[in-house]
Amino acid sequence: EIVMTQSPATLSVSPGERATLSCRASQSVNSNLAWYQQKPGQAPRLLIYGASTRATGIPARFSGSGSGTEFTLTISSLQSEDFAVYYCQQYNNWPPFTFGQGTKLEIK
Amino acid sequence: QVQLQESGPGLVKPSETLSLPCTVSGASVSSGSYYWSWIRQPPGKGLEYIGYIYYSGIGSTNYSPSLKTRVTISVDTSKNQFSLKLSSVTAADTAVYYCARGPRVTFGGVIVGAFDIWGQGTMVTVSS
Question: Could you give the C-alpha distances from A17 to A62, A74, A80, A81, B23, in angstroms and in order?
Fold first, then answer.
């Protein structure tokens, strides 16, 4: 089973600034990686799949990069609605699908 | 617009079976274009894959290794639902349970393993 590790656990950033979240896989997942955003009391929302393809309706300020074992989610200019928990998920070696433990993006 | 909706009891006693249907609207669970999955989230924790069903005339299932002895996922095409059953529950099974659409089977046969649409989630507490 592939283990996904996200860092940092908590990231404090001011509105309008850039946020960079990291996700590492225990072995190569090629580009088979997705990112999700979860706000309190809500279901996760798919942001990115294929490591860099935005899902339908996702704003351009969200971008994904990386391949193999190292991945990054960048939010270029943080809006108030972007403060949430973000999860990465691999789908290269499945089943099972595995998620990272999450990064909480909070207002600085 | 595709929507998924979980339903079921919010409280289950230890050693009993948790049963949750997920009703799908705006898409067919038997189209063969998508897998249909269950994912859970214990309070204050991360996401855990439970299993999926893929139905295209015949149902194919997969379950998380840690849960497979207790999990069954099935489809009711007449109701356009898929359901989760988890037996012999304990307090460790207390979680928000989500149904989700995904993976997706593309026209070229490539499978994209992301979960693109989720139900709102239902909180299940295991307690006597």
Answer: 13, 11, 11, 13, 40
User: Chain B closest CA to A18's CA: distance in Å?
Assistant: 24
Quickly state the pLDDT bin for B14 (edges 50, 70, 90).
Answer: very high
Beta bridge partners, B105, equal B111
**Chain A residues within 8 A of B46 when measuring between CB atoms:** 87, 99-102
Distances (CA, A) of A39 to A22, B20, B79, B105: 19, 23, 31, 28
CB contact under 8 A, A98 and B118: no
Three-class DSSP labels, B55-107: ECCCEEEEECCCCCCCEEEEEECCCCEEEEEECCCCHHHCEEEEEEEEEEECC
pLDDT in tens, B70-101: 999 999 999 999 999 999 999 999 999 999 99
Instruction: Give how far B64 is from chain A: nearest CA, Å.
Output: 6
User: What pLDDT shows up at residue B46?
Assistant: 97
